[in-house]
Amino acid sequence: MPCFKRNPKERFDTKMISIAIDGPSGAGKSSLARSLAQKLGYVYVDTGALYRTIGLAVLLAGHDPGCPDQVLAQLDKLHLDLCYQNGTQHVLLNGQDVSDQIRTEQVSKAASQVSALPQVRDFLTETQRRMAREQNVIMDGRDIGTVILPHADIKIFLTATSAERARRRTAELLEKGQQVTYEQVLEDLKQRDYQDTHRQVAPLRQAPDAILVDTSELDFDGALARLEQIIREGLR
User: Are 202 and 147 in contact (CB under 8 A)?
Assistant: First the structure.
């Protein structure tokens, strides 16, 4: 499986285009960013997957993702890669594909906990910036436009009501065979929103120059069309 690499024939003095999409959990950032990247021919970088992978690694080691000392003790043991096969992103943890394992609610909570640690964010920041220097990218997360890529060509803050986000996430998890209830998902989502917006390091917030897009009343195709319009108009 080929890992993320720049085409050696490309000019290194060519300005790459970077698009940052931030927003709360369940806003549809990943699925929309992935589809946009395919339509525009860009590389999709799911930064949340990197934090999820660290959270998974901590859980697999039998440690508490809420204990900073236990989390930081794992960092030197981790090697993360984003790899692509037939246009699909795969996440490797120490050489093992963990793309499916990182999509559980338990790992989602662990990701939110470990992402609050400055050392974890520093561990991943340069990897993310390198990708943006080497390719045209669409990168989604919670601090892309504010911290990781503050000079991104286009910044979008994607959101929806908590009720709508919980409805979408519940349907997604049930489709994957996970036994969850709407009430449980809504409570977990509200807790994660609080953690993401109140952490001391790089809290979730809309960048001053980001375009706000609320998808509460939009289906997937409508949201995709709106984002594509913003990007194409912004790059003219």
Answer: yes
User: Cα 24–30–35 angle (5° rounding)?
Assistant: 140
Task: Write the pLDDT tens digit of every residue in 72-104.
Answer: 999 999 988 877 777 677 889 999 999 999 989
Q: How high is the pLDDT of residue 134?
A: 83
**Given the structure tokens 């520093």, which residue do they identify?**
122
Model confidence, pTM = 0.76
Q: Does 201 score more than 90 pLDDT?
A: no
Q: Does the pLDDT value for residue 163 go beyond 70?
A: yes
- Please state whether 28 falls in left (phi above 0), alpha (psi between -120 and 50) or beta: left
* E-assigned strand segments in the chain: 18-22, 43-46, 80-85, 88-93, 96-97, 137-141, 154-159, 211-214
Note whether 20 and 152 are within 8 A (CB). Answer: yes
Which of 134, 132, 110 has the alpha carbon at shortest distance from 195?
A: 110
Burial class of residue 228 (count of CB atoms within 10 Å of its CB; 0-12, 13-18, 19+): middle
Asked whether residue 23 carries a pLDDT value surpassing 60, the answer given is yes
**Is residue 132 a contact partner of residue 139, using CB atoms and an 8 Å limit?**
yes
Q: With contact defined as beta carbons under 8 Å apart, do 137 and 15 qualify?
A: no
DSSP state of 217: T
